[in-house]
Automatic annotation (TrEMBL):
This is Uncharacterized protein. Keywords: Membrane, Transmembrane, Transmembrane helix. The chain crosses the membrane at residues 26-50, 62-86, 98-119, 352-371. It comes from the Bacteria. The keyword Membrane applies. It comes from Lacimonas salitolerans.
Length: 434
């Protein structure tokens, strides 16, 4: 039993005062906490509605009501969930109950993020995220265009190798015509072989030269399309119509990049280099004497060796171009604002933080209230009811007792009055008399 004469220690008195003060604060805070929670739930529902609307392709009445129903469900769910947590979790005294409700709070918070927060983020940063996707696509296309152009220009550089080979065989043909190679002047068998290869290389050089203006034109056109795509990325206004125009431009640019890839002559040069020694049509030796024919045969053999060497040189140069990494196939895939926010979440951390905070801020209030209730219980632990009564409590108790006594006195008076009224005439009955 509690000793009525026991005096409170200074620590107990301080703890009791703190508990009383905290209880007073909680009473005042409880007057507007539900309203504040409702405001947060409604705000989250509004942004959820905007996010859901961006996902629905249809703009009819059914889509409108579907978005409204979802957002209302989210608002109600958030309000009810946090109302439960605000009331129940701080009141838990056992460790098992507190841990269980804490786990429930975490699971509920994850559910709220899954059904609401990502849609809130889509509403806050959806357009910016789609523009980020457009900008990323522009960079990909620009890289592909530059790479295709570099490969095409590298292939054009093979023209110098082809020209050197053609000039070398052309010079040999002139030497043969003057008699400096086989020792017999004129346009005999050796001369015809050299001219044959010279004409082949000349034709290949002409094909390479014809591709140059096409490459320049395609590259300029690709840059023009890229400029329009960049303009659509940063243009004012809704992002959906800009995304449609962007998609059309991306198709045109993909065609330009494909043309640039086809304008590369590296494969043509590689094939021509392989055919250079293999496609020699050896003419009949036309020397008048056996010694002249022997000299022609020896010279043709030397020419074939030169052809083989030039073939390897051209083949190696073409192989270096063919080994260059081709541009990655780039295609623009339209994306919704919600998907864009998730894909580029790292670029929109403030928006994600705001979207999650508006849903989970009541969780902070739950734990603040839990800590406060724990402090109140700590200040009252070990004290009896009599020891926790304050002067105001005593005054309230005395007034209550007076009210009870007054009520009992009024009841006794009413009973006596009714007994007198019910007594027979001539008799005055009072309580306690027969």
């Amino acid at each position: 039993m509690t000793n009525p004469d026991r005096r409170l220690t200074a620590a107990e008195t301080k703890g009791l005062r703190t508990a009383k003060e905290l209880e007073g604060h909680l009473v005042w805070l409880d007057t507007f906490t539900p309203a504040a929670l409702g405001v947060l739930a409604i705000a989250s529902g509004i942004y959820t509605y905007i996010g859901v609307s961006s996902l629905l392709e249809d703009t009819g009445a059914m889509s409108f009501f579907a978005a409204v129903a979802y957002s209302v469900a989210v608002s109600v769910g958030i309000f009810v969930f946090w109302s439960y947590m605000l009331r129940l979790l701080p009141s838990m005294r056992s460790a098992g109950g507190f841990i269980g409700l804490t786990v429930s709070t975490i699971v509920g918070s994850l559910a709220i993020i899954a059904m609401s927060s990502w849609l809130n983020a889509a509403a806050l940063a959806g357009s910016a995220a789609v523009e980020q996707h457009l900008e990323r696509t522009v960079r990909d296309y620009q890289g592909a265009l530059e790479q295709a152009h570099d490969i095409a220009l590298s292939a054009q550089a093979l023209r110098q190798e082809v020209r050197r080979a053609r000039e070398a065989f052309e010079a040999l043909a002139e030497q043969e015509r003057s008699g400096e190679l086989s020792g017999t002047a004129g346009q005999g068998a050796v001369y015809r072989v050299l001219r044959q290869k010279t004409e082949e290389l000349q034709s290949l050089e002409a094909q390479i030269t014809e591709q140059q203006p096409l490459i320049v034109s395609a590259y300029e056109r690709g840059n023009e399309i890229l400029g329009r795509m960049r303009g659509l990325t940063v243009a004012p206004g809704p992002v959906d119509p800009r995304s449609v125009a962007f998609s059309e431009e991306s198709v045109r640019l993909a065609g330009v990049i494909s043309n640039l890839n086809q304008y590369s002559v590296a494969l043509l040069v590689a094939r021509a280099a392989a055919d250079l020694p293999a496609s020699v049509v050896l003419p009949e030796l036309d020397g008048r004497t056996s010694s002249i024919r022997a000299a022609q045969s020896t010279t043709i053999g030397s020419v074939l060796e030169a052809l083989d060497q030039r073939s390897r040189t051209l083949g190696q140069a073409a192989a270096q171009v063919l080994e260059m990494e081709p541009p990655q196939e780039t295609a623009y895939n339209p994306i919704s604002s919600a998907d864009a926010v998730i894909r580029y979440a790292g670029n929109f951390v403030p928006s994600w933080a705001g979207a999650i905070a508006i849903d989970l801020l009541p969780g902070v209030l739950v734990f603040v209230l839990a800590v406060t209730q724990a402090a109140i219980r700590s200040g009252r632990d070990g004290l009896s009811i009599e020891e926790t009564l304050t002067l105001a409590d005593l005054k309230a108790a005395i007034n209550a007792m007076k009210d009870v006594e007054a009520s009992m006195g009024d009841a006794d008076t009413e009973i006596l009055r009714r007994l007198r009224e019910d007594a027979p005439p001539g008799k005055d009955r009072t309580p306690g008399q027969g």
